[in-house]
Structure of Energy coupling factor transporter S component ThiW:
Amino acid sequence: MSIRKLTIMALLVAFAVAGSTFISIPTGIARAYPVQHAINVIGAIILGPVSTVVVAFVTAIIRILTGTGSLLAIPGSIIGALCAGLAYKYSGKIWFTGLGEVIGTGLLASLVAVPYAKVLMGTSVAALFFMPAFLISSTIGAILGILVASSLRKTVLVRYFNPTLFIK
Protein backbone atom coordinates (compact mmCIF):
# COMPACT_ATOMS: atom_id res chain seq x y z
CA MET A 1 0.00 0.00 0.00
CA SER A 2 1.37 3.37 -0.99
CA ILE A 3 1.90 6.41 1.20
CA ARG A 4 -0.52 8.26 -1.07
CA LYS A 5 -3.30 5.76 -0.41
CA LEU A 6 -2.65 5.73 3.34
CA THR A 7 -2.76 9.53 3.36
CA ILE A 8 -6.13 9.56 1.59
CA MET A 9 -7.42 6.93 4.01
CA ALA A 10 -6.29 8.99 7.01
CA LEU A 11 -7.93 12.11 5.59
CA LEU A 12 -11.21 10.29 5.04
CA VAL A 13 -11.14 8.94 8.59
CA ALA A 14 -10.50 12.46 9.89
CA PHE A 15 -13.37 13.90 7.83
CA ALA A 16 -15.75 11.16 8.97
CA VAL A 17 -14.86 11.52 12.65
CA ALA A 18 -14.97 15.32 12.56
CA GLY A 19 -18.19 15.31 10.56
CA SER A 20 -19.87 13.02 13.06
CA THR A 21 -19.28 15.55 15.83
CA PHE A 22 -21.01 18.34 13.91
CA ILE A 23 -23.67 16.74 11.72
CA SER A 24 -26.29 14.42 13.15
CA ILE A 25 -29.98 14.08 12.50
CA PRO A 26 -32.49 12.65 15.00
CA THR A 27 -34.32 9.71 13.40
CA GLY A 28 -36.58 8.52 16.17
CA ILE A 29 -34.75 5.71 17.95
CA ALA A 30 -31.27 6.83 17.00
CA ARG A 31 -29.27 9.68 15.57
CA ALA A 32 -28.24 9.55 11.93
CA TYR A 33 -24.65 10.43 11.08
CA PRO A 34 -24.73 10.81 7.29
CA VAL A 35 -21.11 11.96 6.96
CA GLN A 36 -19.88 8.38 7.48
CA HIS A 37 -22.04 7.22 4.57
CA ALA A 38 -20.85 10.07 2.36
CA ILE A 39 -17.26 9.11 3.16
CA ASN A 40 -18.07 5.50 2.28
CA VAL A 41 -19.26 6.58 -1.17
CA ILE A 42 -16.28 8.88 -1.75
CA GLY A 43 -13.83 6.28 -0.45
CA ALA A 44 -15.36 3.54 -2.58
CA ILE A 45 -14.76 5.64 -5.67
CA ILE A 46 -11.27 6.84 -4.82
CA LEU A 47 -9.84 3.85 -2.92
CA GLY A 48 -11.80 0.72 -3.75
CA PRO A 49 -13.65 -1.73 -1.50
CA VAL A 50 -10.91 -3.05 0.81
CA SER A 51 -9.41 0.31 1.73
CA THR A 52 -12.87 1.82 2.19
CA VAL A 53 -13.78 -0.97 4.63
CA VAL A 54 -10.59 -0.20 6.59
CA VAL A 55 -11.52 3.51 6.66
CA ALA A 56 -15.03 2.63 7.88
CA PHE A 57 -13.71 0.30 10.59
CA VAL A 58 -11.13 2.77 11.91
CA THR A 59 -13.71 5.55 11.85
CA ALA A 60 -16.24 3.41 13.74
CA ILE A 61 -13.68 2.50 16.42
CA ILE A 62 -12.64 6.13 16.91
CA ARG A 63 -16.29 7.24 17.06
CA ILE A 64 -17.07 4.58 19.66
CA LEU A 65 -14.03 5.53 21.75
CA THR A 66 -14.85 9.26 21.58
CA GLY A 67 -18.54 8.78 22.33
CA THR A 68 -19.83 10.06 18.98
CA GLY A 69 -20.98 6.61 17.89
CA SER A 70 -22.45 3.45 19.36
CA LEU A 71 -21.43 -0.14 18.78
CA LEU A 72 -23.88 -0.09 15.86
CA ALA A 73 -21.37 2.10 13.99
CA ILE A 74 -19.36 -1.03 13.19
CA PRO A 75 -21.88 -3.03 11.16
CA GLY A 76 -23.55 0.13 9.91
CA SER A 77 -20.43 1.54 8.33
CA ILE A 78 -18.49 -1.55 7.32
CA ILE A 79 -21.25 -3.36 5.42
CA GLY A 80 -22.20 -0.17 3.62
CA ALA A 81 -18.57 0.54 2.73
CA LEU A 82 -18.12 -2.95 1.32
CA CYS A 83 -21.31 -2.79 -0.76
CA ALA A 84 -20.48 0.71 -2.03
CA GLY A 85 -16.94 -0.35 -2.92
CA LEU A 86 -18.12 -3.43 -4.79
CA ALA A 87 -20.85 -1.45 -6.54
CA TYR A 88 -18.31 1.04 -7.88
CA LYS A 89 -15.75 -1.63 -8.71
CA TYR A 90 -18.18 -3.56 -10.87
CA SER A 91 -20.27 -0.72 -12.32
CA GLY A 92 -17.98 2.32 -12.42
CA LYS A 93 -21.02 4.51 -11.80
CA ILE A 94 -21.20 7.03 -8.98
CA TRP A 95 -24.97 6.73 -8.54
CA PHE A 96 -24.71 2.94 -8.30
CA THR A 97 -22.08 3.39 -5.59
CA GLY A 98 -24.58 5.43 -3.58
CA LEU A 99 -27.20 2.75 -4.11
CA GLY A 100 -24.71 0.15 -2.86
CA GLU A 101 -24.22 2.21 0.30
CA VAL A 102 -27.97 2.44 0.92
CA ILE A 103 -28.52 -1.28 0.30
CA GLY A 104 -25.48 -2.23 2.39
CA THR A 105 -26.24 -0.01 5.36
CA GLY A 106 -29.96 0.66 5.12
CA LEU A 107 -31.01 -2.91 4.45
CA LEU A 108 -28.26 -5.44 5.16
CA ALA A 109 -26.57 -3.75 8.13
CA SER A 110 -29.90 -2.93 9.75
CA LEU A 111 -30.74 -6.64 9.73
CA VAL A 112 -27.27 -7.65 10.96
CA ALA A 113 -27.62 -5.05 13.75
CA VAL A 114 -30.44 -7.01 15.41
CA PRO A 115 -28.42 -10.09 16.53
CA TYR A 116 -25.33 -7.89 16.93
CA ALA A 117 -27.22 -5.61 19.36
CA LYS A 118 -28.57 -8.62 21.24
CA VAL A 119 -25.13 -10.19 21.72
CA LEU A 120 -22.99 -7.10 22.31
CA MET A 121 -25.45 -4.58 23.71
CA GLY A 122 -27.98 -6.81 25.46
CA THR A 123 -30.83 -5.27 23.48
CA SER A 124 -33.60 -7.40 22.09
CA VAL A 125 -35.53 -5.78 19.23
CA ALA A 126 -37.67 -6.79 16.25
CA ALA A 127 -36.04 -7.58 12.91
CA LEU A 128 -36.93 -4.27 11.27
CA PHE A 129 -36.27 -2.07 14.32
CA PHE A 130 -33.08 -0.42 13.03
CA MET A 131 -34.05 -0.21 9.38
CA PRO A 132 -35.79 3.22 9.30
CA ALA A 133 -32.88 4.99 11.04
CA PHE A 134 -30.24 3.17 8.97
CA LEU A 135 -32.13 3.89 5.73
CA ILE A 136 -32.54 7.59 6.51
CA SER A 137 -28.91 8.02 7.50
CA SER A 138 -27.47 6.06 4.59
CA THR A 139 -29.75 7.70 2.00
CA ILE A 140 -28.86 11.23 3.13
CA GLY A 141 -25.18 10.32 3.30
CA ALA A 142 -25.19 8.56 -0.07
CA ILE A 143 -26.77 11.59 -1.75
CA LEU A 144 -24.20 13.85 -0.10
CA GLY A 145 -21.39 11.48 -1.14
CA ILE A 146 -22.65 11.35 -4.74
CA LEU A 147 -22.75 15.15 -4.91
CA VAL A 148 -19.27 15.56 -3.44
CA ALA A 149 -17.79 12.74 -5.55
CA SER A 150 -19.31 14.22 -8.71
CA SER A 151 -17.74 17.58 -7.88
CA LEU A 152 -14.41 16.05 -6.89
CA ARG A 153 -14.28 14.09 -10.12
CA LYS A 154 -13.64 17.37 -11.94
CA THR A 155 -10.68 18.47 -9.79
CA VAL A 156 -7.00 18.14 -10.56
CA LEU A 157 -6.33 16.82 -7.04
CA VAL A 158 -8.50 13.73 -7.52
CA ARG A 159 -6.97 13.12 -10.94
CA TYR A 160 -3.60 13.05 -9.21
CA PHE A 161 -4.76 10.55 -6.60
CA ASN A 162 -6.80 8.27 -8.87
CA PRO A 163 -6.49 8.79 -12.63
CA THR A 164 -8.71 5.74 -13.30
CA LEU A 165 -11.74 7.77 -12.21
CA PHE A 166 -11.71 9.39 -15.62
CA ILE A 167 -11.44 6.22 -17.69
CA LYS A 168 -14.95 4.99 -16.84
Notes: The chain has a mean pLDDT of 82. Residues 94-121 form the longest helix (28 residues). Helices lie at 3-22, 34-46, 49-66, 73-91, 94-121, 131-152, 156-161. DSSP finds seven helices and two strands in the chain.
